[in-house]
């Protein structure tokens, strides 16, 4: 889907850290699809690992199936959003399906009660970058020596900051900063935030779990991203900083470097929200078609 009119270099890394026994993060780097995913699972007793792995796999399989079949906007899982591109709707449907499967597993199996996961996705096409997120994992765009968040934290404190009830400084140290208001698997329906942006030459994107952002601030991410010349070096440097600072959580990072774009784009992006429709009558048929 990337095409020949831009060059894309990528790298991904995941580290269990210094305090956790297992790694509940999962990630996907699929250059053939231009699809990049990070999930940060939760739930304990390996349930978080299950939720994140299942979500990554459903997103990968479902997206590839729809791309290969050239699925129309009305063929995706759930009600389409006509303000989005077809690829944006593919991501929307993938997230909805992952949520449904994880929610059903958590509801029906005692050992998985309470499991869930965050998700961040970047899709790179020849003329469009599409990002999607649920939870508090993050996506950053580094462009023209500035860092811009392309994800929205779905946490209690983020909502309080947005309503003017808390400052960003207070939010950073709040004991509630990781209490999520949305994630994959905690409720029957989920509403992701999706952005669509035109690529620009030398754009760099970072997808990460909160193991990075708890210990490395945005200014440091900007500085290191501009100093490193390959995505592999950037991922390694960021992980090394996290380990040096205690690495109390799992940390997963994907870096994406764009170059050789033939036409410079302005890169104005829009944020799109969704109203969710009932699609329960299509669930079993869709899952049978997608998941063997």
Give structural notes.
The structure is a single chain. The chain has eight helices and twelve strands. The protein is of the alpha+beta class and 292 residues long. The strands form two sheets. Strands 2, 3, 4, 5, 6, 9 and 12 form a seven-stranded antiparallel sheet that branches. It has a five-stranded antiparallel sheet with strand order 1-11-10-7-8. Helix content is 33%, strand content 24%. The protein has a single domain (7-273), classed as Phosphatase 2c, domain 1 (4-Layer Sandwich), CATH 3.60.40. This is Protein serine/threonine phosphatase. It holds the Pfam family PP2C. GO terms for molecular function: protein serine/threonine phosphatase activity. Residues 10-258 form the PPM-type phosphatase domain.
Number of beta-strand segments: 12
Structural domains: how many: 1
Shape: globular
What distance separates the N and C termini? 25 Å
Work out the helix count: 8
Q: Which structural class fits the helix and strand makeup?
A: alpha+beta
- Radius of gyration (Å): 18 Å
Q: What's the quaternary structure here?
A: single chain
Pfam family, one: PP2C
InterPro entries: PP2C, PPM-type-like_dom_sf, PPM-type_phosphatase-like_dom
GO molecular function: protein serine/threonine phosphatase activity
Protein name: Protein serine/threonine phosphatase
